[in-house]
Amino acid sequence: MTDTVRLSVTEGIAQILIARPERQNAMTQAMYERLLQWLDECAANPAVQALVFRGAGGRSFISGTDIEHFAQFSQGSEGVQYEAFVETVIDAIERVRVPTIAAIDGWAVGGGLAIATACDFRVCSHGARFGAPIAKTLSNTLSSRNIARLMAAFGAPRVKRMLMLAEYLDVQEATACGFVYSACAPEALEASAHALALRLAGLSRVTQQAVKESIRRIVVEQSLADQDLVEAVYGSAAFKAGVASFLKT
User: Fold this and answer.
1) Which of 58, 60, 55, 53 is nearest to 13 (CA)?
2) Cα–Cα distance between 22 and 181 in angstroms, integer?
3) pLDDT tens digits, 201-229
4) Exposed/middle/buried for residue 205 (C-beta within 10 Å: 0-12, 13-18, 19+)
5) What is the mean pLDDT of the chain?
């Protein structure tokens, strides 16, 4: 099962591919754990300058957790443990120090929507759809942290439509609210994501890391603490070089 989550690196751009198309790229426990391993490997590789997430098959980005995972649940505490584990995964994605992109072809549903939302940018095929129809399917819920992330990305009214009415958003609406950065034909998706990753890789890593962490703290922790981030940025060699370069022009 672990070969259904694959890592490759090209031109400094890492790609994690979820390759279980026969199950709409639904995630098992082993797949989540493999994903965490690949995130650790990317973090340890200084050559990685950006990270792209993709789903195989052209029908689904990631369709969330495989429903079979819940078959033996018998009490609410198991749901608490499950949501805590999911939070470990989503938090790890948010804390990736390089820019992250979700390349979405097809459905981004449930846990797949959470993963896409944890990324910094999303590029999509024209037929992509977004939702978490739990009011219609499992009658479960999302953690408050994941709902906070969705609200920051979509706004409360759209989140209520997705979670309480089991509605899906199309690319047009997701683009209009800023969730989707760009949309293209399915055959151009991989190249589009790679081009955006290269563009991000050419900009200040110091600035990007500080902005990413500030947003994470504001949205998830409701914290405005930033002294460590500001000090790190203004004390960096990159800042000093930027000032010197600007003054020379």
Assistant:
1) 53
2) 28
3) 999 999 999 999 999 999 999 999 999 99
4) middle
5) 97
